[in-house]
Amino acid sequence: MKVPSAAISRLVTYLRILEELEQEGIMRTSSEQLGELAQVTAFQVRKDLSYFGSYGTRGVGYTVPVLKRELRHILGLNRRWGLAIVGMGRLGSALADYPGFGESFELRGFFDVDPAKVGRPVRGGVIEPVEALPQRVPGRIEIALLTVPREAAQEAADLLVAAGIKGILNFAPAVLEVPKEVAVENVDFLAGLARLSFAILNPKWREEMMG
Amino acid sequence: MKVPSAAISRLVTYLRILEELEQEGIMRTSSEQLGELAQVTAFQVRKDLSYFGSYGTRGVGYTVPVLKRELRHILGLNRRWGLAIVGMGRLGSALADYPGFGESFELRGFFDVDPAKVGRPVRGGVIEPVEALPQRVPGRIEIALLTVPREAAQEAADLLVAAGIKGILNFAPAVLEVPKEVAVENVDFLAGLARLSFAILNPKWREEMMG
Description:
2 copies of one chain form a homodimer. By secondary structure, chain A is an alpha/beta fold. Chain A has 2 domains: 5-74, Arc Repressor Mutant, subunit A (Orthogonal Bundle); 81-190, NAD(P)-binding Rossmann-like Domain (Rossmann fold, 3-Layer(aba) Sandwich). Chain A is 43% helix and 18% strand. The first copy, chain A, has helices at 5-23, 31-38, 42-50, 64-75, 90-97, 133-136, 153-163, 189-201, 203-209; strands at 28-29, 62-63, 81-86, 105-112, 121-122, 125-129, 143-146, 167-170, 183-186. Chains A, B: GO terms for molecular function: DNA binding; DNA-binding transcription factor activity. Chains A, B: Residues 13-52 bind DNA.
């Protein structure tokens, strides 16, 4: 099975829609409804789900809580991941205060290179020096939110890799080089702006994308 | 031409790499080098570029500043886009102070629903009420950075659409419904965390993705 990367992004969207439907007390849905809310075709919804198994009943559709549970399982959100924030500047501090991580993700560490920041209390802990990463990461922290400036990103990533991190959510506008055992996702609003620029200038392309 | 959405994201990555090469004084590159730095195959690089024309010379490769200029043109970054920030909370304020938008993007407006925030000076302007959007957007602001809480996101998007916005960079973890004339890109770190969770649990899938 060669699952396209975009399919994983859509699964996350479907999950979010299912959570909203459930909150509204809606217990049944269909590939048509999910597609409309996710702005893709019903065929796309069925194809994305088909990579992982057989869901729903023909002519009946999906049971919202069941499909939600299945998607959480596929995405690995039925477990708890330990997170660290590396780089306690403005963005890192805002993330430390963010209340919406949900039950799948738990902040377990806060790190910075700046001695003036080390020791400062934050919600849920205290800022530690990056030198403490090799002691803190193993068995406790799987994912790092990397919120350092662009020019410090690769060095911080190297430290995280050496400490045994499994995944990096990279907020810096830099292309990180890491061993293939380490997963990287970029949260990069400048790249988002560039994609938006292309999308605005190419409305026909957008229409094709919508199916 | 049906250009995959992921190809556009990769073009942005190639552009970033070309900018870094140029800064290092490197004037020639190849699909092999670009691929290695972007962590895709050389074939992928050539394929992504082939959607838009014929670039480089066989056996010689690409001239860095030329390919950079071509990519900027393809992505629409050779023009100046007017931006507004809608939602001047913590994230919106951080973005207002962000120094790295570059020459393609210019902050031209700051908006909030909160009367207590309206009138407050920010770098490059003053916070205005969202009611001013219909006067401020036309002919001046093409793209909105939407940094309101999740539950306010759709209503704010509706206001922006009514004011004539062309694109929305959505930072809220919500699936926005907008007319097809309006482009939306999501900067959604929670979705990034979910994709990371999947990627960590499926290392074989990651290897396949790398080509």
